[in-house]
Amino acid sequence: MARRSDHTREEIHLMALEAAEAIASQEGLSGLSARKVASKIGYTVGTLYLVFRNLDDLILQVNDRTLSQLYQEMERVSAKPKKPEACILALSHTYIEFASNNTARWSMIYEHVLEDDFVLPAPFQQQVQQMFALVENALRPLGKNKSDREIAQAARALWSGIHGICLLALTRKLDIAGIDSVQDLADTLTVNFLNGFREN
Amino acid sequence: MARRSDHTREEIHLMALEAAEAIASQEGLSGLSARKVASKIGYTVGTLYLVFRNLDDLILQVNDRTLSQLYQEMERVSAKPKKPEACILALSHTYIEFASNNTARWSMIYEHVLEDDFVLPAPFQQQVQQMFALVENALRPLGKNKSDREIAQAARALWSGIHGICLLALTRKLDIAGIDSVQDLADTLTVNFLNGFREN
DNA sequence: ACCTGAACACCGTTCAAGT
DNA sequence: ACCTGAACACCGTTCAAGT
Questions:
Q1: In which residue ranges of chain A is pLDDT below 50?
Q2: Best residue in B96, B188, B198, B199 to probe A by mutation, most A CBs within 10 Å?
Q3: CATH 1.10.357.10 correct for A63-199
Q4: Does residue B107 sit at the A interface (CB-CB below 8 Å)?
Q5: Residue A17 backbone zone (phi > 0: left; psi -120 to 50: alpha; other: beta)
Q6: Per-domain residue ranges of chain A
Q7: Residue in B82, B176, A146 with CA at minimum distance from that of residue B93
Q8: Which uninterrupted H or E stretch holds A10?
Q9: For A81-85, A154-158, B124-128, B171-175, which range has the lowest pLDDT when averaged over its residues?
Q10: A136 phi, psi to nearest 5 deg
Q11: Is residue A189 within 8 Å of B193, Cβ to Cβ?
């Protein structure tokens, strides 16, 4: 056989990404394979390599889509006017809720280990910067005398912290028997951090 | 061939763990395979399954050893008398230094994804609890009016936070161009958190 | 009793060969 | 030009068969 041309290259590209998302959602990163994606879209493995450089490339593109979905939800939340502390708590809740509702896909962003020499594609880095920008904007009113660098540093410290709680809790590496939910843990971190950060 | 009996079961067990550690240190979790471990200790793959339930079991035991090494270093640091804040900063530095010096093995603890229904072995959970206990002890003098639950919650929130910074920075998922080192980021989190947490 | 090694069902990736 | 499918070099895991 061969020469099917049922779909354009762009269509195959999109179908593959959507198939990969479905597989990842159900079986996680370890259950995702080129052969499974190919068979799910009705093509042979070889075809995938006409559209993606390799499996890492495909995963990176799936992760990029997940990240942009997450960003959109956070952006929508931070658009509503709120006091700074309420804004940061709302962002944190949105982040945790997204991670809880899309655990497999969200985990995949962090489970996917890059080669030592691999440089993240620019669009991916921009996504990360955009997300931090939301936190920086919410933080700025609380530190009016602080430099941009200090704000940037604080945003990364706090957000990595919330991320860490989320990650350890969802992968059950955290021992939280008798401890409140992920949200409460994250709130504890945020509230104490902001109390220390705030100028008064 | 067969019937070699060059080594006892315990010897094979230990040799396999050490071989796995060496492979993991050099090639990371993704480079670790049963076949490689077996060939490194001069046995066949089948032999490994006489000593470990499966590869997950082997990995879990390697991770347990790594965790106990990390705990010992943290324990040694917290044994020296210090003011509470200095103690927590020192613990954080020890944690980050261990992660930097043993990145592959440290990452493996968190990269290793458990099955949904898998319950962590009791010794593993104890290790985690022990580590949190060190942080709780350092935190307690700063919150004399706080309940044990509040102290436990704060320790988990702060430590997950430091872990998150460490993880994102070492896997280069964090965009820290123009930002100071991992240590500085972690210090930012800790200092602000403690300022908010402290009763005065 | 202890260990082997072949077998099974999977991988990612490539590329000559078919239409 | 487009896609296939067989090939290669790997996996984890099992288990009959050798000594």
A1: 1, 178
A2: B188
A3: yes
A4: yes
A5: alpha
A6: 1-52, 63-199
A7: B82
A8: helix A9-27
A9: B171-175
A10: -60, -45
A11: yes
Confidence of residue B142 (pLDDT cuts 50, 70, 90): very high
pLDDT at B87 over 60: yes
How many contacts, defined by CB atoms under 8 Å, are there between A and B?
Answer: 156
Closest-lying nucleotide for B34 based on CA to C1' = D12
Contact, B119 CB vs strand D, < 7 Å? no
| CA-based nearest residue to A77, from A55, A95, A61, A53 | A95
Nearest to B174 by CA among A58, A131, A94: A131
Helices (runs of H) and strands (runs of E) counted in chain A: 9, 0
Q: How far apart are CA A90 and CA A69, in angstroms?
A: 17
pLDDT for position A175: 67
Question: A89-137, pLDDT tens digit by residue?
Answer: 999 999 999 999 999 999 999 999 887 778 888 888 898 899 999 999 9
Q: Tokens at residue A115, please?
A: 């080669």
For domain A1-52, the CATH superfamily is Homeodomain-like (1.10.10.60)
